[in-house]
Amino acid sequence: MSTVVDLHAAARVADAVKVYGTGETRVRALDHVTVEFPAGRLTAIMGPSGSGKSTLMHCAAGLDTLTAGSAYIGGTELGTLDDRRLTELRRARIGFVFQAFNLVPTLTVRENITLPLDLAGTAPDRAWVDALIDVVGLGDRLRHRPSELSGGQQQRVAVARALAGRPRVVFADEPTGNLDSRSGAEVLGLLRQAVDTMGQAVVMVTHDPTAAGYADEALFLADGRLVDRMRAPTADRVLDRMKALDGAAARPDTAGRRDTTGRPDTVGGAS
């Protein structure tokens, strides 16, 4: 039976459940989460350590599989794809930006930017790549290797690489975690520009309220559940919300989400 999906959403998960381990070590990392990531929007995913925010991103991006529920890129359900087709979809329709940059040290800046296209056997759109290089401000560094760049410059290369194939959605996992405040602001400005000028969908996992302030919406997870969402977030409002979540997680009656029954818990908060 096919499921009706919102084709306007760049990515989405529906009733997503992810369980790790068995028996006494069974942990429910995602507990019936449903959320959409529209085109033309930067969405920040936040929550205390162990809340499930990275698990949500990995499952939405097809880097991990759900225990139950569904994940979609556009109208394609990831659970219906074999490994080869899933790899092809990730190359063609998803961009990634990671905290550790993940650049190939032996390749030049230009070669790193076009690497996903080269792996897919797709000829780069030279005008598009040149436009990205101009946007990230690295036109004078194209022949440099990553070791010859600052951390902020390396992450700008990673952003350009993520956008080079015109993906449907870009997933960014703590993209400013290894950067100083100035370089982090530059990278966040690039992601914001990709949303505003290119209509890109960007999904960013972050623990930083300042980074979340660049988003159109912040989603808050706790114990694997979507418990709140904030439109037009500001750093101060996000910080206050995170303090409340951290306080709740520290209380013995709410901390942890060990699941030894295998039965769904009652879902609280926003969905």
Give your account of this protein's structure.
With 271 residues, the chain is an alpha/beta fold. It has one domain: Rossmann fold, CATH 3.40.50. Helix content is 34%, strand content 24%. It is built from eight helices and ten strands. It has helices at residues 53-60, 83-93, 109-120, 126-136, 151-163, 181-198, 209-212, 235-250, and strands spanning 9-20, 27-38, 42-46, 68-73, 76-77, 94-98, 169-173, 201-205, 217-222, 225-231. The strands form two sheets. Strands 6-7-8-3-9-10 form a six-stranded mixed beta sheet, with helices on both faces. A four-stranded antiparallel beta sheet has the order 2-1-4-5, with helices on one face. The two termini are 24 Å apart.
> What is the CATH superfamily?
P-loop containing nucleotide triphosphate hydrolases
Oligomer: single chain
Order of strands across the main sheet: 6-7-8-3-9-10
Q: Main sheet? A: 6 strands, mixed
Mean pLDDT: 86
Overall CATH class: Alpha Beta
Number of distinct helices? 8
Question: What's the Cα radius of gyration?
Answer: 19 Å
The low-pLDDT segments are 1-7, 254-271
The backbone outline, from C-alpha atoms, is globular
Query: Could you say what the CATH architecture is?
Result: 3-Layer(aba) Sandwich
Distance between the termini: 24 Å
What is the helical fraction, as a range of percent?
25-40%
CATH topology: Rossmann fold
Q: Compute the number of strand runs.
A: 10
Structural class: alpha/beta
Question: What's the number of structural domains?
Answer: 1
